[in-house]
Design goal:
- The chain is built from six helices and six strands; from the N terminus they run E-E-H-E-E-H-E-E-H-H-H-H.
- By secondary structure, the protein is of the alpha+beta class.
- The two termini are 26 Å apart.
Length: 185
């Protein structure tokens, strides 16, 4: 289970473990909380009062963050897992949904033709279609794209990088996802 760590301004910063979240609480670096309480940690007893320390962890925490981050210029890192999730495991050429093991990162303009490895030049393809297209462009191969690539927003990236998102975390993130996102439809 992961905690969604946000800046004090509400921008997503990272997915952190419960233990990492406890450190932010103990250091009094949690500025605000959202979502539901997901864990309670019991610490030691105060020598003077005998009271036991307790830290309750919420699923979303706002911490002292980095100032001046512009979420519109940040570009998420490209991984196969995030690419396949962005494209919903659907091959951009045959339109069939596949399991991740049957998918490949397909370069629209291949490396052999000076293509680059960026979000806007890659789509998900099944192994068969990727092999058939080979080192040609879709036009050269006669294999038109069924959908266009796009660069995920900061909010989409946080959804793409975590497979086990709690419902309150997903609701929070989806409220900030662009209306034309493939993650909405």
């Amino acid at each position: 289970m992961k905690v969604l760590k946000l800046s004090a301004q509400g921008l997503p910063q990272s997915w952190i473990s419960l233990e990492q979240a406890v450190v932010y609480y103990a250091a009094e670096d949690v500025r605000w909380e959202a979502g539901q309480e997901i864990a309670v940690f019991h610490g030691g007893h105060n020598a003077l009062t005998g009271e036991q320390s307790i830290i309750k962890v919420n699923s979303i925490i706002g911490t002292r963050g980095v100032h001046g981050i512009n979420p519109f210029v940040l570009r998420p890192g490209l991984t196969n897992s995030k690419l396949f999730t962005r494209d919903r495991n659907v091959c951009a050429y045959c339109g069939e949904r596949h399991i991740e093991a049957e998918l490949t990162r397909e370069h629209i303009v291949p490396f052999a033709q000076n293509g680059v490895d960026t979000w806007m030049n890659v789509v998900t393809a099944c192994r068969s279609c990727n092999h058939r297209k080979s080192s040609r462009t879709p036009e050269q191969a006669g294999m038109p794209l069924l959908y266009t690539p796009y660069v995920p927003s900061l909010w989409e990236d946080f959804i793409l990088r975590n497979r086990r998102i709690l419902s309150d975390q997903m609701e929070f993130l989806m409220a900030h996802v662009p209306q034309n996102s493939r993650l909405i439809t």
